[in-house]
Amino acid sequence: MLNAPWNLARISRGHTRNDGLRRYRYDATAGPGTYVYMVDSGINFSHAEFSGRAFRGANFVLGSPDDDESDHGTHIAGIIGGKTYGVAKSCTMISVKVVSKSGRGNMLWIRQGINWATNDAIAKGIADRSVINVSAGGLYNASVNVAVKNATDTGITVVVAAGNHATFAGAFSPASADTAITVAASGPDDCRAPFSNYGRCVDMFAPGAHIASAWNYVDNGMKYESGTSAAAAYVTGLAAYFISSETLRGFKAVRERILGASLNGVITDTRYSSNRLAYNDNRVS
């Protein structure tokens, strides 16, 4: 893919940082047969980026429509599986709404959303081909972390945002969940984004600053956003990408592949976080 956004180009470029090529090299067949549960604010299901691959799942926000009212979920979905901006351009995305129009959620909704996604994947026999993306959270909550553990115990990969408070991610859930892949944000300079949480529960970094993706309010629109939510979305996309292209099955195999493919030692100002940067193992020559 030529003239790719910096963030897509970065996850396929290897150790070379700013080479000016802006190419995203990837396996064009990756994504089919994988299922991403979006625990977020909903999705604009008619957006051109999704080509009919985004579906309604569950809605835990009382009195709210299934569609995205805050624009967060649509942007994240575009990073995961959008045909232009996405990593796994052919994956199936299932909306699990836990964030309201105002951008607020609560830990009960998040826990319910994770549990619903887990049970749905089990019922459909797709747990080992599924990924749960949680780009929402709050202060440490043991029941939310247990929900993550229950999901990964079934073989589902769970990817979560580290948070945007510029402090230790271990104070938040599901960022502190032991079996989640917790993702912090980096910028074009391969430095930790100033807003990104950090610490020993962070498993890796991914691009999270000035990220182009789908815009909720126009069916072919685009906008730029920053946050660890975007960073988590890149890793969720990689999980679906590797599950499909390499026939990986189960959380442990997917986690090992993602961390094994990541670039070591390229991020500055990690602040006790694991110094790994997301990489799709398709180096641009």
TrEMBL record:
Transmembrane portions of the chain: none
| InterPro entries found in the cross-reference section | PCSK9_ProteinaseK-like, Peptidase_S8/S53_dom, Peptidase_S8/S53_dom_sf, Peptidase_S8_Asp-AS, Peptidase_S8_His-AS, Peptidase_S8_subtilisin-like, Peptidase_S8_subtilisin-rel
Q: Name one Pfam family in it.
A: Peptidase_S8
The UniProt entry, under SUPFAM superfamilies, shows: Subtilisin-like
- Which residues lie in coiled coils? none
A GO molecular function held by the record: serine-type endopeptidase activity
Kindly identify the residues recorded as the active site: D40, H72, S229
PROSITE patterns associated with the record = SUBTILASE (PS51892), SUBTILASE_ASP (PS00136), SUBTILASE_HIS (PS00137)
Q: Which UniProt keywords are present, listed alphabetically? A: Hydrolase, Protease, Serine protease
Q: Which GO terms describe its biological process?
A: proteolysis
Query: Which stretches make up the Peptidase S8/S53 domain?
Result: 32-244
The family line of this record is: Belongs to the peptidase S8 family.
Q: What is this protein called?
A: Peptidase S8/S53 domain-containing protein
Q: Say which species the protein is native to.
A: Fusarium oxysporum f. sp. cepae
Organism lineage: Eukaryota, Fungi, Dikarya, Ascomycota, Pezizomycotina
